[in-house]
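Researcher: Let's do a round of design. I'm pasting the structure tokens now; please hold your answer until I've finished.
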């Protein structure tokens, strides 16, 4: 019987608690503030980090059959109000036949602190309290307590970059509020719940954690199914419920939705969701693989990849149509593109498995990666322009500019790396499928993207009719090479602007210094190659460039990332802002973008920000929300995942009263948007 197990745990807890005061706690708490200088009239966020010892666990707000959450008796200064703690998504753990809602790993509880506007700047607002919680293993439970405190002083509300990043990571682990209510009904000993959730939302190993106490039998089996755009949960009840029920639906992999359920009609059960299994949806796999290959092929037509392709075009022209050389380079190019895409996919899956909220093109969300790509782009531009002839500077460019297998491989690798920020037709859904497929099935999809990028050169290498259409080597190649420096220079300019928008003036000065000293070094190198300059001067300039690069890298690593400011007329996206906008009863248009996403910027310039579209939106009362993913944002990453995507762009249209958003195409037109608005 469950009550016997509960009595046994209670007895163990009483015995263990007699010596708890004589030793340190098994779960170590620490109270930290996002801003230690909160502004009067504003708020800051507190995090109570809880670090269990190995084999120990803490509890969710509703601990289940035999546990309880954390409670704090605050000693707050006058003018300081602490809101209740918000809990991350828990795990279900059955011990002795009882269900426990637990955390078996380090976790953080978040609470907002409000500072009254009457508080005088400079006032000491040090906050303290006595925290009580239950720590358990599979054999023993110990009630624990500790004094927690954090030093605060009324100030300007500034938040350090490292603190913001850390708190964003914790916020990403909180359940996202569902902007629509579900329903519940009781049928005999069974209680049924209906949660509105679009069919496109990825869900794996679902579990409904009911916050309302003494309503369900926590240890009873939960039968979870999908009926269209609703998740149906059926389980055994053990109590009466009146009015709304608070709950949390775990979607899998630490993702969850908090929601309210009102008494009402629940649809019939649908297709069962059984959680993770060894099998996969083969139709999804083959569709995603085909979409990735075709999407990669289409990327060759986009400006993201074109500057890199110019390198390979020159190489193929130099080969003069030699069949063997063309085949070798084509295979090497394919290997470089496919392996790079596989490597990026493996890193992405590894980061997500480690709990990081990242998506495709994650490398361009970090200024250091953008800085190194800028260095490479400047070196390639100057080489194509003829500033220096021997590819002896810039590792990636030197390798890419070589002929044969090595040159083909590194050009393919560079093309795949640079192509990842682009998300053309078919790619969004294809890469989104990797969120729900096991790693061994997801990796071939990433490889398929690289294969698609390489398809044109693979065809040229192995189809003589295509290869014979290539122009013969001649003087035109020198002119063509210099013309190809133009798109590469534009790529370097775009990277410099991106670095500035990511990091502000620090990035701007870093880009300027890199341009000046890289150009100086390569000009000097070129003069030395032509017998007009001194190698010692070149070496001196190279040392200055190295020193400048190291200093810039250190500054970029430490500097506060700032939100890139988009030229949009919408408000900033957040789950709360979306819920507020939908509550107005007006149409809501949500789009997710990034400064490094050329597809996004093309849609914004060509459709979203067009005057005619904005006028119709204004006339029809359309609320526009913009999610900027330039620097990465865990909340946006989770929102993308909830709609089956792990890349941008993503466009959502919420019609008034609709239960779910409509996912719009990745290529927008003004007519499409005005038609949606009813213009």
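Researcher: That's everything. Go ahead.
Model: Designed sequence:
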């Amino acid at each position: 019987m469950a009550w016997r197990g509960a009595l046994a745990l209670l007895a163990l807890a009483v015995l263990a608690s007699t010596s708890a005061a004589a030793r340190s706690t098994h779960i170590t708490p620490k109270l930290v503030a996002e801003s230690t200088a909160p502004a009067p009239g504003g708020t800051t966020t507190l995090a109570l980090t809880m670090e269990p010892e190995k084999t120990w666990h803490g509890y969710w707000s509703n601990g289940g059959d035999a546990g309880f959450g954390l409670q704090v008796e605050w000693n707050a200064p006058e003018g300081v109000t602490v809101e209740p703690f918000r809990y991350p998504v828990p795990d279900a753990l059955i011990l002795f036949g009882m269900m426990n809602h637990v955390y078996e790993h380090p976790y953080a509880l978040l609470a907002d602190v409000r500072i009254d506007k009457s508080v005088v700047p400079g006032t000491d607002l040090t906050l303290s309290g006595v925290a009580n919680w239950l720590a358990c293993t599979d054999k023993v439970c110990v009630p624990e307590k500790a004094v927690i405190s954090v030093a605060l002083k009324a100030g300007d509300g500034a938040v350090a970059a490292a603190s913001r990043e850390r708190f964003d990571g914790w916020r990403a682990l909180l359940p996202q509020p569902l902007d629509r209510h579900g329903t519940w009904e009781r049928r005999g000993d069974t209680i049924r719940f209906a949660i509105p959730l679009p069919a496109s939302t990825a869900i794996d190993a679902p579990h409904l954690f009911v916050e309302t106490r003494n309503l369900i039998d926590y240890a009873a089996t939960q039968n979870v199914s999908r009926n269209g755009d609703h998740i149906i949960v059926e389980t055994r009840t053990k109590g009466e419920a009146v009015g709304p029920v608070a709950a949390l639906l775990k979607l899998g992999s630490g993702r969850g939705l908090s929601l309210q359920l009102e008494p009402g009609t629940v649809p019939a059960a649908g297709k069962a969701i059984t959680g993770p299994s060894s099998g996969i949806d083969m139709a999804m796999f083959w569709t995603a693989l085909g979409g990735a290959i075709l999407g990669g092929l289409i990327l060759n037509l986009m400006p993201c990849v074109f500057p890199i392709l110019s390198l390979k075009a020159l190489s193929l022209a130099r080969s003069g149509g030699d069949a063997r050389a063309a085949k070798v380079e084509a295979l090497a190019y394919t290997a470089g593109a496919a392996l790079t895409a596989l490597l990026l996919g493996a890193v992405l899956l590894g980061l997500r498995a480690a709990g990081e909220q990242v998506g495709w093109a994650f490398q361009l969300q970090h200024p250091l990666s953008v800085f190194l790509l800028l260095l490479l782009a400047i070196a390639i531009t100057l080489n194509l322009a003829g500033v220096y002839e021997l590819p002896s500077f810039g590792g990636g460019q030197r390798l890419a500019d070589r002929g044969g297998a090595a040159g083909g491989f590194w050009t393919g690798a560079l093309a795949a790396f640079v192509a990842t920020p682009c998300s053309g037709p078919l790619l969004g859904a294809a890469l989104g499928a990797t969120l729900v497929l096991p790693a061994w099935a997801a990796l071939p999809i990433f490889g398929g993207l690289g294969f698609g990028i390489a398809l044109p050169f693979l065809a040229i290498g192995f189809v003589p009719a295509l290869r014979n259409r290539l122009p013969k080597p001649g003087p035109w190649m020198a002119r063509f090479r210099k013309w190809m420096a133009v798109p590469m220079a534009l790529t370097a300019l775009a990277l410099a602007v991106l670095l500035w928008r990511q990091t502000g003036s620090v990035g701007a000065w870093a880009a300027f210094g890199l341009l000046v000293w890289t150009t100086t070094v390569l000009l000097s190198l070129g003069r030395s190659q032509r017998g007009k300059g001194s190698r010692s001067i070149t070496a001196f300039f190279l040392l200055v460039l190295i020193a400048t690069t190291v200093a810039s890298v250190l500054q970029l690593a430490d500097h506060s990332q700032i939100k890139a400011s988009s030229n949009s007329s919408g408000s900033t996206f957040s789950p709360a802002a979306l819920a507020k906008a939908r509550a107005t009863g007006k149409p809501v248009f949500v789009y997710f973008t990034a400064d490094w996403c050329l597809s996004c910027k093309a849609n914004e310039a060509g459709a979203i920000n067009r005057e005619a579209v904005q006028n119709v939106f204004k006339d029809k009362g359309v609320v526009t929300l913009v999610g900027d993913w330039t620097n990465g944002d865990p909340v946006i990453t989770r929102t993308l995942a909830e709609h089956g995507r792990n890349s941008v762009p993503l466009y959502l249209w919420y019609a008034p009263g609709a239960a779910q958003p409509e996912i719009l195409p990745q290529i927008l037109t003004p007519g499409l948007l005005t038609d949606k608005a009813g213009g």
